[in-house]
Design goal:
globular, 5-stranded parallel sheet, Alpha/beta knot, 5 strands, 5 helices, about 160 residues
């Protein structure tokens, strides 16, 4: 299975970007991984949040297309502990899903339209994270999931 991670815009934190790159590099030992960036919409007075999220969601949907299994991250999504996330990933692998697409929205989150059309909605926590932090948590948890699947000691 190939993993595609979609981020809206670039992060402004070099340390977070460096940590994300480190975990993505570690993930490539288990499966092909590619990080994609879609353009962030400008958040400006007079432009409704729904419009901003809608445009970003359209970019994500266009990129992911129907190439695989699309999971978007949203605090109202399904929560897993780390072993359950590993089980979720393993189940997708065993069911023959060729590509897993995981999308983290911008500062305003994911549009209702994209959430409705996704194959799944995942929550990292009931707490709200800055989207830059959510990116790092996602890639670290994916790495942890693969170490659990492989029975490696990282999770201990």
């Amino acid at each position: 299975m190939r993993i595609n991670i979609v981020f809206v815009g670039k992060t402004g934190f070099r340390d977070i970007e460096s940590a994300i790159e480190r975990y993505v590099e570690r993930l490539t030992h288990y499966c092909p991984v590619q990080v994609h960036y879609v353009k962030a919409e400008k958040i400006a007075p007079g432009i409704k949040d729904e419009v901003v999220m809608g445009r970003e969601g359209e970019r994500i949907a266009k990129l992911a297309g129907r190439k695989g299994h699309l999971v978007v991250l949203d605090r109202a999504g399904r929560e897993f502990d780390s072993p359950s996330l590993a089980g979720f990933v393993l189940k997708l692998m065993e069911s023959g899903v060729p590509e897993l697409w995981l999308a983290v929205g911008g500062p305003l989150g994911i549009s209702d339209e994209l959430r409705k059309n996704a194959d799944g909605v995942l929550s990292l926590s009931r707490m709200t994270y800055a989207h830059d932090v959510a990116r790092l948590v996602l890639v670290e948890q994916l790495y942890r999931a693969f170490t659990i699947i492989k029975g490696e000691p990282y999770h201990k």
